[in-house]
Amino acid sequence: MDTLVSIGQLALLLGVAVITLRRWDRSGQLPCATRTPGGHRRYDLANARRLLGLSDPGDAPRLTVAYARVSSHDQKEQLGSQAERLRRHCAEQGWTEVEVLTDLGSGMNCRKPGLLKLLRLLARQRVQRLVLVTKDRLLRFGAELLFQLCGLFAVDIVILDESDPVSREQQLTADLVEILTVFSSRLYGSRSRKNLRALKPETA
Asked: CB 204: neighbour CB atoms within 10 A?
């Protein structure tokens, strides 16, 4: 049965920007298979892969993806240590085809480059297992949703430190501090930009 997807879904599955797919559509390089009653384009996923010369996900080896994250720049050294620990664990297990993704940013930020690449790999069914040091390295809030997505794609989840080394109260405090830090930076960043515009001299 043909898999028909929207242009946004196709972009995610193929790892290609939507604007690029629209350009290919206009040029006839990637014609849509059909349109919905509302006029929205739908593309045949298998045909799109064939036309663009892309292999089927089943043809490529599935990856072991190790994901490391720290919240701030002053933890950059810890990020390197975390990534190295993940690499060492994967090597000890004899896992090949390993890709280590790293992010430096808040656990509340869902747009970090490494996390977005992980989502693309999951959507393309390229991931065999996901390896984390601790559960909250993925996301501070919403990690369970990503774990559900892993379940849908039969991705094994390996967490090196299953037990939480801090108390529930300490964890809640850390969550609250992170929330306040993120909103404060956005608030003062917004104010800073407004102040700069106000101070900028008008041009004749």
From this structure: 3
